[in-house]
Amino acid sequence: MSADSYQKFVTSTTPPTNIQVGDSWFNPSTNRTYQFVNVSGQGLQWVEQVTSAGSGTSITLGNVTVTGGTGSFSGSSSNLSVTLNNIGETVGLSAVALPGYFTYELTKQTILYATANTASTMVINFVGSSSSSLNNVMSIGQSISAVLMLTQGSTGYLPTAYYIDGVAVTPKWQGGTAPSTGSTTAIDVLSYTIIKTANATFTVLGSQTKFS
Protein backbone atom coordinates (compact mmCIF):
# COMPACT_ATOMS: atom_id res chain seq x y z
CA MET A 1 0.00 0.00 0.00
CA SER A 2 1.42 3.35 -1.00
CA ALA A 3 1.54 6.32 1.32
CA ASP A 4 -1.20 8.00 -0.71
CA SER A 5 -3.65 5.06 -0.85
CA TYR A 6 -5.63 6.15 2.22
CA GLN A 7 -8.01 9.09 2.54
CA LYS A 8 -6.40 12.17 4.04
CA PHE A 9 -7.65 15.13 6.04
CA VAL A 10 -5.54 18.18 5.29
CA THR A 11 -5.58 21.55 7.02
CA SER A 12 -4.25 24.42 4.93
CA THR A 13 -5.27 27.82 3.61
CA THR A 14 -4.93 26.65 -0.01
CA PRO A 15 -6.25 23.48 -1.69
CA PRO A 16 -3.79 20.62 -1.14
CA THR A 17 -2.09 18.74 -3.97
CA ASN A 18 -1.25 15.04 -4.33
CA ILE A 19 -4.87 14.14 -3.52
CA GLN A 20 -7.34 11.41 -4.34
CA VAL A 21 -11.11 10.99 -4.30
CA GLY A 22 -12.44 11.06 -0.75
CA ASP A 23 -9.73 13.30 0.72
CA SER A 24 -10.93 16.15 2.92
CA TRP A 25 -9.56 19.66 3.30
CA PHE A 26 -10.20 22.17 6.07
CA ASN A 27 -9.46 25.82 5.35
CA PRO A 28 -8.76 27.51 8.72
CA SER A 29 -9.00 30.99 7.21
CA THR A 30 -12.67 30.47 6.28
CA ASN A 31 -13.61 27.66 8.72
CA ARG A 32 -14.92 25.58 5.84
CA THR A 33 -14.40 21.88 5.12
CA TYR A 34 -14.33 20.36 1.64
CA GLN A 35 -14.17 16.86 0.17
CA PHE A 36 -12.59 15.91 -3.15
CA VAL A 37 -15.30 14.06 -5.09
CA ASN A 38 -16.41 13.24 -8.61
CA VAL A 39 -19.42 15.44 -9.41
CA SER A 40 -21.63 14.05 -12.16
CA GLY A 41 -21.10 15.99 -15.37
CA GLN A 42 -18.49 18.24 -13.80
CA GLY A 43 -15.60 15.93 -12.93
CA LEU A 44 -13.36 15.88 -9.88
CA GLN A 45 -13.57 18.92 -7.63
CA TRP A 46 -13.65 20.15 -4.05
CA VAL A 47 -17.21 20.25 -2.66
CA GLU A 48 -18.02 22.02 0.58
CA GLN A 49 -19.25 19.73 3.34
CA VAL A 50 -22.06 20.92 5.60
CA THR A 51 -23.04 19.30 8.87
CA SER A 52 -25.90 20.09 11.20
CA ALA A 53 -25.33 23.20 13.27
CA GLY A 54 -26.51 24.09 16.72
CA SER A 55 -28.56 27.10 17.66
CA GLY A 56 -26.83 30.36 16.92
CA THR A 57 -24.41 28.83 14.42
CA SER A 58 -23.95 30.68 11.14
CA ILE A 59 -23.30 28.69 7.94
CA THR A 60 -22.33 30.35 4.66
CA LEU A 61 -22.92 28.43 1.44
CA GLY A 62 -22.09 29.07 -2.19
CA ASN A 63 -24.28 27.75 -5.00
CA VAL A 64 -26.45 25.03 -3.48
CA THR A 65 -28.99 22.75 -5.13
CA VAL A 66 -31.36 20.75 -2.92
CA THR A 67 -33.44 18.03 -4.56
CA GLY A 68 -36.36 16.38 -2.82
CA GLY A 69 -37.54 16.81 0.73
CA THR A 70 -38.85 19.94 2.39
CA GLY A 71 -36.72 22.60 4.01
CA SER A 72 -38.02 24.09 7.24
CA PHE A 73 -36.75 27.36 8.68
CA SER A 74 -37.95 28.48 12.08
CA GLY A 75 -37.73 32.06 13.23
CA SER A 76 -38.32 33.38 16.72
CA SER A 77 -40.38 36.05 18.44
CA SER A 78 -37.75 38.60 17.46
CA ASN A 79 -36.36 37.22 14.18
CA LEU A 80 -37.75 36.38 10.76
CA SER A 81 -37.19 32.79 9.66
CA VAL A 82 -35.68 33.67 6.26
CA THR A 83 -34.29 36.83 4.69
CA LEU A 84 -33.65 36.83 0.92
CA ASN A 85 -31.81 39.48 -1.05
CA ASN A 86 -33.32 38.16 -4.28
CA ILE A 87 -35.13 35.10 -5.52
CA GLY A 88 -35.97 33.53 -8.86
CA GLU A 89 -39.18 31.59 -9.31
CA THR A 90 -39.91 29.01 -11.99
CA VAL A 91 -42.66 29.91 -14.45
CA GLY A 92 -44.28 27.10 -16.39
CA LEU A 93 -44.81 28.03 -20.05
CA SER A 94 -47.52 26.55 -22.22
CA ALA A 95 -47.32 27.32 -25.94
CA VAL A 96 -50.79 25.87 -26.50
CA ALA A 97 -54.15 26.94 -25.11
CA LEU A 98 -55.23 25.17 -21.94
CA PRO A 99 -57.72 22.33 -22.47
CA GLY A 100 -61.31 22.39 -21.25
CA TYR A 101 -60.31 20.40 -18.14
CA PHE A 102 -56.87 21.29 -16.83
CA THR A 103 -55.04 19.61 -13.95
CA TYR A 104 -52.75 22.16 -12.31
CA GLU A 105 -49.85 20.30 -10.63
CA LEU A 106 -48.59 22.74 -8.00
CA THR A 107 -45.39 20.85 -7.21
CA LYS A 108 -44.26 21.49 -10.81
CA GLN A 109 -44.81 25.24 -10.73
CA THR A 110 -47.03 27.76 -8.99
CA ILE A 111 -47.00 30.20 -11.92
CA LEU A 112 -48.30 29.04 -15.29
CA TYR A 113 -48.20 31.29 -18.34
CA ALA A 114 -50.25 30.18 -21.37
CA THR A 115 -48.77 32.17 -24.24
CA ALA A 116 -51.23 30.97 -26.90
CA ASN A 117 -54.62 32.65 -27.14
CA THR A 118 -57.16 31.05 -24.84
CA ALA A 119 -59.66 29.17 -27.00
CA SER A 120 -62.43 28.20 -24.58
CA THR A 121 -63.61 28.25 -21.00
CA MET A 122 -62.03 25.67 -18.74
CA VAL A 123 -62.26 23.78 -15.47
CA ILE A 124 -59.19 23.91 -13.19
CA ASN A 125 -58.32 21.02 -10.87
CA PHE A 126 -55.54 21.86 -8.39
CA VAL A 127 -53.49 18.86 -7.26
CA GLY A 128 -50.07 18.28 -5.75
CA SER A 129 -48.88 16.20 -8.71
CA SER A 130 -50.02 13.39 -10.96
CA SER A 131 -49.21 10.97 -8.13
CA SER A 132 -49.95 13.04 -5.01
CA SER A 133 -52.98 14.99 -3.89
CA LEU A 134 -52.69 18.58 -2.72
CA ASN A 135 -54.16 17.39 0.57
CA ASN A 136 -51.13 15.13 1.06
CA VAL A 137 -48.66 17.80 -0.02
CA MET A 138 -49.97 20.47 2.37
CA SER A 139 -50.35 20.52 6.15
CA ILE A 140 -53.24 22.10 8.03
CA GLY A 141 -52.52 25.78 8.51
CA GLN A 142 -50.41 26.09 5.37
CA SER A 143 -51.15 28.09 2.23
CA ILE A 144 -49.88 27.89 -1.31
CA SER A 145 -50.24 30.45 -4.08
CA ALA A 146 -51.07 29.70 -7.70
CA VAL A 147 -51.00 32.14 -10.59
CA LEU A 148 -52.62 31.42 -13.95
CA MET A 149 -51.70 33.81 -16.78
CA LEU A 150 -54.06 33.52 -19.73
CA THR A 151 -53.27 35.21 -23.04
CA GLN A 152 -56.52 36.44 -24.58
CA GLY A 153 -57.33 37.09 -28.22
CA SER A 154 -60.38 38.84 -29.65
CA THR A 155 -62.56 36.84 -27.25
CA GLY A 156 -61.63 36.40 -23.61
CA TYR A 157 -62.26 33.12 -21.78
CA LEU A 158 -61.94 32.29 -18.08
CA PRO A 159 -62.23 29.19 -15.90
CA THR A 160 -65.83 28.42 -14.99
CA ALA A 161 -65.29 25.92 -12.16
CA TYR A 162 -62.57 24.88 -9.73
CA TYR A 163 -61.64 21.64 -8.01
CA ILE A 164 -59.01 20.57 -5.50
CA ASP A 165 -58.07 16.90 -5.75
CA GLY A 166 -61.22 16.37 -7.83
CA VAL A 167 -63.55 17.93 -5.24
CA ALA A 168 -65.43 21.10 -6.22
CA VAL A 169 -64.45 24.31 -4.43
CA THR A 170 -65.84 27.83 -4.79
CA PRO A 171 -63.22 30.57 -4.48
CA LYS A 172 -63.92 33.77 -2.56
CA TRP A 173 -63.12 36.63 -4.93
CA GLN A 174 -61.55 39.99 -4.32
CA GLY A 175 -64.35 42.57 -4.28
CA GLY A 176 -66.92 39.87 -3.54
CA THR A 177 -67.87 39.03 -7.13
CA ALA A 178 -66.45 36.27 -9.30
CA PRO A 179 -65.13 37.49 -12.70
CA SER A 180 -67.56 36.58 -15.44
CA THR A 181 -65.70 37.57 -18.60
CA GLY A 182 -62.15 37.52 -19.80
CA SER A 183 -60.34 40.51 -21.20
CA THR A 184 -59.70 40.93 -24.94
CA THR A 185 -56.28 41.22 -26.59
CA ALA A 186 -54.66 41.24 -23.15
CA ILE A 187 -53.33 38.91 -20.49
CA ASP A 188 -55.62 37.96 -17.62
CA VAL A 189 -53.69 37.08 -14.48
CA LEU A 190 -55.74 34.94 -12.10
CA SER A 191 -54.15 34.69 -8.66
CA TYR A 192 -55.23 32.14 -6.06
CA THR A 193 -54.27 31.68 -2.43
CA ILE A 194 -55.16 28.15 -1.31
CA ILE A 195 -55.35 27.65 2.46
CA LYS A 196 -55.71 24.21 4.04
CA THR A 197 -57.95 24.67 7.09
CA ALA A 198 -58.62 21.00 7.92
CA ASN A 199 -58.12 17.58 6.36
CA ALA A 200 -59.19 17.83 2.70
CA THR A 201 -60.74 21.22 3.46
CA PHE A 202 -59.55 24.37 1.71
CA THR A 203 -60.35 28.06 1.44
CA VAL A 204 -59.44 29.63 -1.89
CA LEU A 205 -59.04 33.40 -2.35
CA GLY A 206 -58.98 34.61 -5.94
CA SER A 207 -58.44 37.76 -7.98
CA GLN A 208 -58.33 38.78 -11.65
CA THR A 209 -56.00 41.46 -13.05
CA LYS A 210 -55.82 42.62 -16.66
CA PHE A 211 -52.48 43.44 -18.29
CA SER A 212 -52.30 45.01 -21.74
User: What's the number of extended β-strand segments?
Assistant: 14
- End-to-end span in angstroms? 72 Å
The helix count comes to 1
Structural classification = mainly beta
Mean pLDDT: 88
Q: What's the Cα radius of gyration?
A: 25 Å
Sheet with most strands? 6 strands, mixed
- Summed up, the domain count is 2
Assembly context of the chains? single chain
Q: What labels describe this entry?
A:
elongated, 1 helix, mainly beta, four-stranded mixed β-sheet, six-stranded mixed β-sheet, 212 residues
Question: Explain this structure to me?
Answer:
By secondary structure, this protein is mainly β. It folds into 2 domains: 41 residues, no CATH class; 120 residues. Helices cover 2% and strands 39% of the residues. It contains 1 helix and 14 strands, in the order E-E-E-E-E-E-E-E-H-E-E-E-E-E-E. The strands form 3 sheets. Strands 5-7-9-13-14-12 form a 6-stranded mixed beta sheet, with no helix packed on it. A 4-stranded mixed beta sheet has the order 1-2-3-4, with no helix packed on it. A 4-stranded mixed beta sheet has the order 6-8-10-11, with no helix packed on it. Strand 10 and strand 11 form a beta hairpin. It is elongated and about 70 Å long. 15% of the residues are buried. The model has no long low-confidence stretch (mean pLDDT 88).
